[in-house]
Design goal:
The protein is an alpha/beta fold and 490 residues long. Among the domains are: 171 residues, FAD/NAD(P)-binding domain (3-Layer(bba) Sandwich), CATH 3.50.50; 109 residues, Guanine Nucleotide Dissociation Inhibitor, domain 1 (Orthogonal Bundle), CATH 1.10.405. It contains 16 helices and 19 strands. The strands form 5 sheets. Strands 7-6-15-16-17-14-18 form a 7-stranded mixed β-sheet. Strands 9-2-1-13-19 form a 5-stranded parallel β-sheet, with helices on one face. A 3-stranded antiparallel β-sheet has the order 10-11-12, with no helix packed on it. Helix 1 packs parallel to helix 16, helix 5 crosses helix 9 and helix 11 runs antiparallel to helix 12.
């Protein structure tokens, strides 16, 4: 019997690992090549002086997507990870002293909404019906199915229901039509940042993200989010993936419009007619594919998602005000996004905080707290921010803001250790153009459908997966992109 043809996966982010596992589990010889010493891509970890930080994604949603992958490999989520359903998806704080805990129990959530504005209780229920409708209309066609650009969406169901996707209003426009409270409007607008976009520009269709969190739940795997990468690494080994870390792919070879192999920094030449690239499509075209430069330049003309300014703080004491997930809002959200769109840093940014010692005591020394802090900032492309000279000062500005506006008294004096990651660092670490976290932005009506398709339109046998392609960034979507790529290969 003839042996099945080898599949080569370039890049070991979550999309690439998911694709490799599915190909190998289906009986295809599979090689996974990753330039860094570990798998996981943006799902990464740092340890220092007894502190442990997840330095990429910090929230698990749609855990059934991960379970589906593990079941394809003969295991399950329950067998591999201890996943906790969070009692609160997020705590929201404002400088005026307002606090809103987005509880995952509906009665508790309703009580907290009523504390902000009793009239918005009914508005929230109507908004959730609307958000669930957006989800139901788009999830199967958009999230769970490979697409090849906007043309592939034009079936009779999408044409019939397209108006119900609310793509002609902005997210903010839709949110304001439901909620009276400016605080609750700001909470709902925040979901645009889940794909690195602006609520004042991105289509209202993306209000479906609110349903993914409020309606479907928020979760945390004990041990930290990086445990997912460790479990998937072990799963890939178990199903027979040939994993080569600390190895760089130097080229994807093609002849007569078809993939014929890859070359590596070790001097290897691997013959194959099936390559899945988990490297951003623009970078793949520009650096790995001969003749791809012109297409890479066309992609470079599209708007990038926001990048992130990350500060990891190890604190000697804990602050009870900081929940597992906490958002400290800017007093002027619209001005913050206007600055970001213009390539500027905002003076009073929204600060997202995450700590994990509530579930994993060993993530900080006794009595301490591990703080991951993130501010959305412009990607570096076309931006003149002098990060080498501004990073330390901006981190101090954030710490000062937490002290003076959000009641974290003595915060700076409690810092034992600090690490900073700028957009330049993210670009270098993860081969992300401009340091963008989610690839291309979704700030126009059709931009969600303009992501690079998962099947290369010119080179047969070349496929893409990861946050830079369909259906987008974040843990579940990256895993789905790997599933789509594997389906196309097989």
């Amino acid at each position: 019997m003839q042996q099945a043809e080898r599949v080569v996966v370039v890049g070991g982010g979550l999309g690439g690992v998911a694709a490799a596992i599915r190909c190998a589990a289906a009986g295809r010889p599979t090689t996974l090549i990753e330039a860094r010493p570990t798998l996981g891509g943006k799902l990464n970890i740092m340890r220092d002086q007894g502190f442990v930080w997840d330095i990429g994604p910090s929230l698990l949603t749609m855990p059934w997507v991960l379970d589906d992958l593990l079941q394809a490999a003969g295991s399950s989520l329950a067998a591999e990870l201890d996943v906790v359903a969070l009692p609160s998806a997020c705590r929201y704080l404002w400088a005026d002293g307002t606090q809103f805990d987005a509880m995952t129990s509906l009665p508790a959530l309703i009580r907290n909404i009523a504390t902000i504005n009793p009239r918005d209780v009914g508005n929230f229920m109507r908004f959730m019906t609307y958000a669930q409708q957006l989800w139901d209309l788009s999830a199967d066609k958009f999230l769970y199915t490979p697409i090849a650009g906007w043309q592939s969406m034009l079936d009779w169901q999408m044409l019939r229901n397209g108006w119900r996707l609310d793509g002609l209003r902005t997210m903010d426009g839709a949110v304001r039509s439901f909620f009276e409270s400016p605080h609750l409007q700001q909470v709902m607008n925040r979901f645009a940042t889940y794909n690195g976009s602006s609520p004042y520009r991105t289509p209202a269709t993306f209000n479906l993200i609110a349903w993914a969190e409020f309606g479907l739940g928020a979760f945390y795997p004990r041990g930290g989010l990086y445990r997912i990468a460790e479990v998937l690494h072990a799963t890939a080994q178990r199903v027979g993936v040939d994993i080569r870390t600390a190895t760089t792919v130097t080229g994807i070879q093609h002849q007569h419009g078809r993939v014929c192999g890859v070359t590596t920094s070790d001097g290897d030449a691997i013959a194959t007619q099936r390559v899945i690239s988990n490297v951003d499509p623009q970078v793949t075209l520009a650096t790995l594919l001969a003749g791809g430069a012109a297409r890479a330049q066309r992609l470079a003309r599209h708007e990038l998602s926001t990048s992130g300014f990350v500060v990891l703080w190890g604190l000697r004491e804990r602050y009870a005000q900081i929940d597992h997930h906490t958002v400290c809002f800017s007093p002027n959200y619209r001005a913050e996004f206007a600055d970001t769109d213009a390539g500027r840093l905002h003076a009073t940014p929204t600060i997202y905080l995450n700590h994990t010692v509530g579930y994993d005591l060993d993530h900080a020394p006794l009595g301490g707290q591990n703080i991951f802090a993130l501010v959305n900032v412009p990607a570096t492309r076309g931006c003149q921010i002098d990060w080498p000279n501004m990073a330390a000062g901006y981190a101090d500005l954030m710490a000062s803001q937490l002290e003076t506006h959000f009641g974290l008294t003595g915060f700076r004096q409690n810092i034992v250790v600090q690490h900073i990651l700028t957009p330049h660092d993210l670009a270098q670490l993860y081969n992300a153009p401009g340091g963008s976290i989610y690839g291309l932005a979704s700030n126009t009506t059709l931009s969600a459908f303009m992501r690079p398709a998962q099947r290369d339109p010119q080179i047969a046998g070349l496929y893409y997966c990861g946050g830079g392609t369909h259906p987008g960034g974040g843990i579940p979507l990256a895993l789905l992109s790997g599933k789509h790529a594997a389906q196309l290969v097989m």
